[in-house]
Specification:
Blueprint lengths: L1 H6 L2 H5 L4 H24 L4 H25 L2 H10 L22 E6 L4 E7 L11 E6 L5 E7 L5
Antiparallel strand pairs: 1-2, 2-3, 3-4
Helix pairs in contact: 3-4
């Protein structure tokens, strides 16, 4: 799977990704983040401010669902795996120039039973921690693994 991501071979990569589970996982995480934000903004303030915050959070959740549906595509997931980070297309420009070779990613794997592993990646200047993006793989069949979830970094 990592080789397919580096080679940008979408067909080989897609065989190892459960896109519906991946989308639902990200939608659930974004919904939880929005609920936390809504709860924080709901403390204090007038009733009108609370109503405005609630409306904003509902609109944010609806937009997040559409954004995730549009973004969770092979090229986006392959880039996230190749770079061990998750960022929106065009969100930031890489510091690499076209002649630079991509940084190697070091992976740390955490086993969760016999049917699940979580891989955390770090570049040369990072250490793998809970604040890194986690790529969750579930066993599919006897010896096949599929990416089923991307865990966003923990909030400080």
């Amino acid at each position: 799977m990592q080789a397919a991501a580096k080679e940008k071979d979408a067909d080989a990569f897609n065989a190892h990704v459960d896109y519906p589970k991946l989308r639902e996982s990200l939608k659930g995480q974004f919904s939880a983040m929005m609920a936390d934000t809504m709860q924080e903004t709901g403390r204090g303030g007038s009733d009108m401010e609370k109503a405005g915050a609630s409306l904003g959070a509902m609109l944010g959740m609806a937009l997040a669902d559409r954004f995730i549906d549009a973004m969770v595509r092979p090229e986006f997931v392959m880039k996230a795996m190749a770079e061990a980070k998750l960022e929106a297309p065009g969100a930031s420009k890489s510091t690499q120039t076209s002649g630079d070779k991509p940084r190697d990613v070091r992976w740390t794997v955490e086993r969760k039973g016999v049917d699940r592993v979580i891989a955390y990646g770090a570049n040369d200047d990072q250490e793998p921690t809970a604040k890194q993006v986690g790529f969750v793989f579930d066993r599919s069949g006897f010896a096949t693994w599929k990416l089923s979830e991307i865990r966003l970094p923990a909030k400080n």
